[in-house]
Here is the input.
Amino acid sequence: MAKEIYDSELGRGWRTYIPAIVAIVGAFVMLGLRLQFGESFISDGALMMLALASYIFAALFHLTNLYAPSDMARKIGLWSAVLGVFFNLSSWLVRWDAAYEHEIAIMRESGNMATPWIFRYIPFANLYDLSLAFAFGAGIATLLLARRKSFQVLSAFTLPLAALILTLARFIGNEFIDLPPVLDSYWRPIHVGVASLSYGVALVCFAIAVIYLLKDKVKVEAMAIWSSVFAIAVIASISKFSVFSEFVYRAGLFVPNEAGGKPFSAPFRLDMPYSGAALAFCGLLLVGVIAAFLIYLYRGSESARKVGHVLLKAALIAQIMTVGLLVSQIRSTTDVYPKLQVQLAGDPTQIATAGRAMAERQNLTASEFAAISPMQLEQLGRQYLQANGQKMFLSLNTNPVEIAGLITALAGTFFVMLFAFRTEKLVERLPSLESLDSLMYRTACLAFAGLAMLLITGAIWANESWGRPWGFDSKETGALVAWLTYAAFLHTRIARGWTGRSSAYFAILGFLLVIFTYLGVSYLLPGLHSYA
Amino acid sequence: MDDKKEPLSYSLYYLEMSAAEETLKTKEISTPKTAPILNRMLDFISSVRFGVSQLCALVVLSMIGMLIIQQNVQGFDAYYASLTPAEKLVYGSLGFFDIYYAWYFKLLLLTLSLNIILASIDRFPSVWKNYFTKPKLTATRPWLLQQPQKEVLQTVAGDDAAIAERIKSVFEANRLKTRVTSLQDASYGLDAAGQKDFSNISTRTKLVVFGETGRINRLGAYIVHVCLLTLFIGHFVALQTGFDADVRMIPGDATDQIQMIQFDLDKREKFNVQLPFTMTCTDIQQTLIDPRGSIDVTNTLDWRTQIKVDDPEYGSTIADVSMNKPFSYRGYRFFQAQTIPVGNAREIELNLTPEIGGEPLNVKISRLGSTALPDGTTVEYEEFQPDFVLNGDKPDSRSGDYNNPAAILGVTPPGGQRVRVFAMGEGAARNAPMMSAPKAGYKWKLAGYEKSPFAHVLSIKYDPFNGALIAWYFGGFGLIGALGFVFFFSHKRVWALIDPKDSGTEVVFGGNANRNHLGFEEKFNKVVRDAEASL
Here is the structure.
């Protein structure tokens, strides 16, 4: 038996690394081509989209292989994943060269003949760069897992998550930012590189935890409740909580950057007709899903279960249509200023809200801020509107986290529905509970070690740059919280024997905290890491 | 290979080493309620359960500190002003605005540190005994068959010692440190009725080959905890004995004081701190991406401040402080923090046209510097105004932007009186003919200048005992190394029990590892395959 396992799984040794090696070497070949052909070569944005498509394609084939096992589907899935990682890393490397050329062009035009060191341009400067690297980390971790045939099915779960990260990157936008001088340090590639790889491993650990729960026969209806809770939380919190309070969704606005580069966010948001109501309707359906499945779980009511599944399907369709409506409205709306004026005429309080947002950016003391009257705030808002109103425009990039959140919620609903389809057959095809548990533990250990490196390198860099290694900045604390969660996970496992489901829940919580550190801190909380 | 089922028999055995290994479990908190209260308290504080609860508490408090803006974070003022009086009162009295320095947060870190120390002290002796001083060198068949990895091989009867020697070679070829031990296995015989006969005890000597690698990994957790404690203690020492301050550096200015900042909700108080030395700013420089652009941070490659330290004890030192390149001196670390973004010029280029006619001169003068012209006229670069305007007779600037740059010079012709001269750019000179009229024998024009800010601000960290260095370099890197050691390596153990039987010799393999079980499975299978081939 041991011999059979040995030969079938591992006898090929280094050959099992070939997919990962091909992806990485191929990406460096692409970099070479970029250096050769310059700007006429394929752009990093296009490569990123190819990576996104490849990940989705690979996931589809792996899912197909799960339900209708086929060696052909498995191989296509595997090599599509390789292609995805190849395009992902290529995009990142090409972006490095493009950033270098972009700034050098500016310097040469102004007569500045200096040539800063090449690591100044390494793509770890903003959330777009980190997202690219995060997705790569998840992709390469998936390929390394896929060395064992029995684990290749895990790609069906990890690659869609990597695709969601790239979707977020798409909405963030790939404009180059002006690098703050404090980021021009050799610590940046070390610290941010470790961050992206650890996040990638944490993502894989999360996917394994979800698969474990499936294999451990956690009811799909219970999973549907949690995914619906997540979706409702997203819908409730976007557009500054206006969806459920006012049945309105307001999209953010941009004002062009005169100097080129990334446009500025305007302090105003424009109503998207019907989108708010559609989102509220989705929320209502999801509440119905939760209620129906709770009744099923606690009372064993089959009819409640059937109703729940019908509502789940309806919620999925509603979410698809709503996201489609929202995206098409944002892309097609051109006459922003007249519409905004009509909106503000109907609700002038929004002008003062905008004025308040502008005042908050002015670094006033608390007493100075408190001394500003509502009329002055409104005056500030009106002045801004007068100066910039005509220039404002809508873009999918104004609220990347909100749109990515809606798409993630949609994906969650979709996957839960998928799990509900021929669940027994799906569960049969998954690896054993013992191997999943062992894998979950190993990836959690890697994520834990990676997050520790992230914290330490960050502290040392902070000591060199800001003069204080640890100041409980939001991002530092967020990473610490995620690390402590993994620490608790490992200690309960070692000392209390909390394997299996308990471990899976911990792993899921740890990843959610990683996502909060990655996104929530940057977008919701102030601090020294706000450019990240 | 199939496991052969043996007739039921009771095995009495004695082991050379303690039997504790066979039933070794994590130490349970099972102190009876009649035990002294101190013992019970110590057991509780050293328990993993307590440690995990401390971690959870730390998570909760840290999340509160993230969600409620802290008083030393930018944006606190606006946030504080937006709170209701009730929120201010509740959050304030709970210490939420400065939670990371609140007494209960420090207490939590202290109890967590205590938990780590006591838990380590509690568990270390048994680990040292069971894996180092008295490792489990022998194992019985039932125990081996309970191991996560197990295999039974049958071979032809032969000399046990020779078989043991072959297995030992296989173990050593697989990089296992090997020892061969004998195991006295006693068992009851059966009587004619097939029942066990307690008077019939037969003992057999069996050989056990034990191989292990990575034993030191068992101490990994303790190394991790030591590094963690080094980090805590170092950081604590740095916090208690040090402070943060800043100082404004204007070229030419000297100071022996720095300003320490203390936050108290929405109030910022600054206190002067006396230095044991004097600092003089000799130069500040800003490297721009586009030299024609602004001195805004978005157009900046780097800032550099040059300071001269005059120390009565150690003499003079000249140092550069740049972004990410701090300067350390007698426990003080100077960091390039920010600038006062009012335009200035590090070096000016003047175009001088002699009043009496002749070739124009081009001269460059550095800030605080001077030059002598061929005719002996001394030109001193006194001041620079980026958006020049005259307030009465006092040169001033409307803004910090380079809208109307002018250099203010002190010119002393040979044998003449020192006069003040304004050198402006071409456009400005046309608009202010009076100020740009010839003086001291020349028409003065500002031909060019190297942009730099008016002043830099250096932030200072005073850390006399290098607590931060010890904490983060030794403790931090040590922690990374220790975690890598813990998670990427494991303690692997394999036993091979050689049991001669009537029909041949049975070799029972069993093995375990403390982590990376899938990887150990590969190694175990290889060892067994190699052993099978050699037998």
User: Anything to note?
Assistant: The longest strand of chain A covers residues 264-272.
